[in-house]
Design a protein that fits this description.
A hairpin with a 5-residue loop joins strand 4 and strand 5. By secondary structure, the protein is α+β, with helices and mostly antiparallel strands. It has two domains: 73 residues, no CATH class; 43 residues, no CATH class. The chain is elongated. The strands form two sheets. It has a three-stranded antiparallel beta sheet with strand order 3-4-5. A two-stranded antiparallel ribbon has the order 1-2. It is built from five helices and five strands. The N and C termini lie far apart (60 Å).
Length: 126
């Protein structure tokens, strides 16, 4: 499906792994697809509808210039994101995000770990 107006209909926006910053491709599926199956390898026309159309790597991408050829089914890691199952909770020293698959995203875990967080909380309560 081709759409106009940006990345609003991109399959990545409705993928759990993309939304929770755990995409195995490091970000957008289209960035990976541009490497393994470049757009200009399948289509001969040069697209000039966006500012940086002539920069290296731009023609390889499928989604550019407000046009998105949505094919999220091609991504082998796509998991449909269910917003109703995305919860933000208060934990010991920070708010955490709990995703539909049980993954907990916490800035404290990422920086100092759960044990240190709990130790600091206990120290604070003494």
């Amino acid at each position: 499906m081709m759409t106009m107006g940006g990345c609003g209909s991109c399959g990545c926006n409705s993928c759990l792994l993309y939304r929770s910053a755990r995409c195995p491709f490091g970000g957008c599926w289209d960035d990976h697809r541009a490497i393994v199956n470049p757009y200009n390898g399948c289509h001969a026309e040069v697209r000039t509808a966006w500012t940086s159309w002539n920069k290296p790597g731009e023609q390889e991408h499928w989604c550019r210039g407000g046009v998105c050829y949505e094919r999220e089914a091609d991504c082998p890691h796509f998991i449909a994101y269910d917003e109703s199952r995305h919860i933000v909770r208060t934990c010991l020293l920070a708010n955490v995000e709990v995703w539909q698959d049980g993954y907990i995203q916490c800035s404290v875990i990422d920086s100092i770990g759960c044990e240190e967080c709990y130790r600091r909380l206990e120290e604070k309560d003494d």
